[in-house]
Automatic annotation (TrEMBL):
It comes from the Bacteria. Residues 668-721 are annotated as: Disordered. InterPro entries: TPR-like_helical_dom_sf. This is SEC-C motif protein.
Amino acid sequence: MSVDQYSVCPCGSGKKIKFCKCKDSIHEMERVLKMMSGGQMVAALDRLNQVLEEHPDAAWCLAIRGRLLLELKEDEALAENAERFIRLQPSNPLALTQQAAYRGVRGETQAAADSLLQALAESSAGVDTFVLDVASVLSLSFAQAGNLLSSRCFAGLALTAQGYENERLAMMAVEQVNRSREISNMLKDVPTLEVKPTAPAVRERYDEASVLLRANQILLAESKFESLARSNPQEEGVLRGLLVCAIWRGDAKRQSSILRKLSDIETIDADQRARDLALSLLLAPDQPEICTPCNNYTWDIEDLAMLEQELMASSHVVQLPADVIRMAGNTDENEVPPRSGFQLMDRELNDTEKLPEPDVAPLVLTNALLFGKQTDRAARLELLSVCGIELDEAMKFFTSLSGVSGEPKVSEETIPLMSAASVNMPIMRVGGTQAEARKLQTIVNNREFVGRVLATPLPLFGGKTAGETLDDPAYALQRTALARVIESYDVMYDDPAVLDQLRTALKVSALPPIDIESDDQVYTLPVDALYRVNVESASKQPLFILLDRARNFRCTPVLRATAERLLAIDLGEDEVRIKPHAYIAWIDSTSDESKALELLAEAKAWAKANSVSHAPMLLNECLRRVQSGDGEGFQTTVQEIIRDFSNDANVMGQLQQLLVELGVINPDGSPRHAPQQAAPMGLGNEPSPAASGGSGLWTPDSPTPPQTPGEGSKLWVPGAE
């Protein structure tokens, strides 16, 4: 097949083949592509190497060779190929993208971002799919490194490019962040350029820079913003432009620094300054200003067996299960794992037949690991991550033991405030269900949270605790920023009263509610502002948009309130389209299992009355029955799905996937065998089954439904005969 001399050369230079240096060797490309399509990657590489020996300036070979090497994970060869490519064509976007790829593989994400931004700047003829492929990989690398705003920028390149079909990695990077309740909602969308300078001379140059920014000419835009910042260091719009550039460049330290500067500008609104400071704290690498010091303590032990007996005999100590000890030890394959592990509680727990009442529930002060004697070191006791709040009581207990003597070795570390302020309950088996244990954990944690926040020393307050700064107006901005940080976590809205108590304790005012006046307003609100939306002010369409955004970003109370509002108003001709989504959203955002089951019954009745499929409600009910420990109800729901939808392959496929995830069946449809009787549940984070009382009824707290030995499965599942 002859090559069209007037088509664009695949080397990435943007030139037609007739006018490119590749024209003398381009006839070899078809042969190489045939090898690749046939899976002959090594042969294709060999042929490319031969062509490069004959035609050293065949840039098309370097372009294809780089993609092959990246796919084959030949990192060193990719680096050499990219450097050669850049020497040949320094401004070639494919060469710069290869450089970004190998830098990203080496973990040099910021340098990789710079190379990719140069590639974007040089892509005047359109962005090649290879550039978008590497942008997707880079977005995932940034997400794994905790640089979430930069990750979102590069993912956006792939997700918004017309005709690009390989957006799976970029979507994964975005969705993993969006769905997490443990990630601050301030880190789920990129700041925009809303504030513009008012001075005409500054505004003109600002507009030039912002146009470049919107065209993904990030490096050129940054140069213009920096020039403006030198002559206008307090100009808010210019600093926000530099912030967006720093996000694109993956420079988390600079992002935090610019936001800190913005928080210091007194002409900016006080609430915005507090938000800027809060975001600065969250973006700083490792978040040092909102982490608190804690120490690990190590003693050499002469008689380990005696110490172990002392710990086992104490009513304030529980022994850790073996699998938890392995994780707590954090040892690699070459290190000896801990011999045993214990948790020190702040009080005794005598009755293990039932869960304790919240006001007498024991809390963990520290975890202790015992290591046996090794060739090169003595037996030892290690206390892990002891913070100031628990330090005195923990040290008093362990130094009183006869097996512990001398001064310990101390290693310093820090842990995030959200971890330090959350209490841990001991890992032990007591009577009850997992749902009851989770409820107890939540009640106790909510009771202790505010007091622990106020008692935790932070660098944000110069090493003081927040409680020590309550009467000092110099720390008012810092206290407000701290409140905004904590408010930005969705997990804090499980009990909104805790946030009210926190704001009152910190002497911080709540932000005002937001009334909705248009659809565009809902689209442009920052994610952390969704919690302030007054759903009563919104009409049908903005409510549906809000429901979608709240679901995408896992804003639980917003999802619940919006769904409840949609079900309460007249939806007119859109009822059949919107109402099922509203029901499922309300059910998914409801933590009360009995309330969720009531809603499911109502939703199923409505769906049947309006000729709408009730399969989503039944599948959801399966999960709810599991979470509430209703084994009989679970079986009944499964049978109802089979009865009503046995001819619907899609629904039955979803049921099979659900049963596999729940551990009821194997992927091939065969039943999983289970122990005849479930053991008592574990309190804390230990995955363990619930008490069955010998009834033989499978509950979700058991690993799998119990069966009588020798009996087959009584449950028909897709794939069973």
